[in-house]
Amino acid sequence: MRILDEVLAFNEEFVAEKKYEKYATDKLPNKKMVILTCMDTRLVELLPRALNARNGDIKLVKNAGALIAHPFGSVMRSILVALYQLQAEEVLVIGHHDCGMGGLKADEMIGHMKQRGVTQETLDTLEYSGIDFQNWLKGFSKVEDSVAHSVDVIKNHPLLPTDVPVHGLVIDPATGKLDLVVNGYESK
Hints:
The protein is of the alpha/beta class. It has helices at 3-16, 43-50, 74-84, 106-115, 120-128, 133-136, 143-155; strands spanning 33-38, 58-63, 90-96, 166-171, 178-182.
């Protein structure tokens, strides 16, 4: 069975048996926080459990590496929407050890793109249009520095309310242990 067919078959049963009822909540976060974290598969269930967060408690924004690539991109927009429209009051940036973005090299990624059919002509056109692949596809060498950078981008954003604490943490994807990188209460 193909992946989409499997998903739809399961969903039909999920809805028919009303399994959704135990997840009922509203759109406002009970714990008044928005979290930016990585899309790593190990964090899907571990991170909320390690934070004592249940369905409805938090706003969760995920991307590769919990990185903010552009201060006016979709990640920052999501954080601002959570703060201004959805009653979040604090921001947590949570990176993790053994992240796929750690040490990511643009040339290696471009090589994979070419293997899957992206032509050099397409890459040249995008580069000519202003895409700096070396910067856009750059990973990080130390997760703590990456988290501190994302915290800094958020904290210094001109549209961020001045009273919002922005915290930075790193989670161990094997144990769920959290290490504090930036205490937003102390750096206000």
